[in-house]
Amino acid sequence: MTRLLASHMARAMPWWTFAVAVLLAVVLQLPAVQSEPRLLPVLIGLRLAAAVLGAAVGFALPDLMASTVVTPVARWRRQWLRIAVPLVPAVLVWAGLYLAVRQTVAPAVTWPDGFVILQAAVCGLLPVAAAAMAARYRDDSLGGLAGPMAQGVALIGTLFFVERSSPWQPPATTDWTTAQRCWPVALVLVVVVLLAANRETFRAARTFR
């Protein structure tokens, strides 16, 4: 049943949005191919690539048939499948870009891998969590817009912080600033929201238990 449902969701997914996101993610890596690449623009390109890929995943989460079709598959399982189908290729695309950029700019530009991957995880999962929460209350394509909206709010809010107070500063190899220590907390919060968004609804729990 799960395999059949995943196959159906893969066919129904709006892959054109994912294709546009992949193209944009590739274009955003232009700072890495400059004659003298700089650390901050390169990292911005990697963060934005994760953000646009995550936003594309979010557009696959609204269940357009939820209000018209009854299915014996629990909602939580359907939603996690809706996430997994586009998220797996999105992670693979970003990982490929990351490795290519890392090899292109080294040894002139380096950074701690763990910190940048952590940032990318937050940037990519934030729109997924926001879209998943919106999908609990809307079963139309507008629910996917919650992802980019959440990204915009988070970005604007963090741009007011500068220098060592900014979470966007290039990471140090030895120690993180207080603002940079917020990234693990942000990842935990995003995962908690995602788990809450994909939990079974009360009505579904009563119908399909």
Automatic annotation (TrEMBL):
Origin: domain of life: Bacteria
Membrane-spanning ranges: 42-62, 83-101, 116-135, 142-162, 182-199
Keywords noted in UniProt: Membrane, Transmembrane, Transmembrane helix
Protein name: ABC-2 type transport system permease protein
Naturally occurring in which organism (per UniProt): Actinoplanes italicus
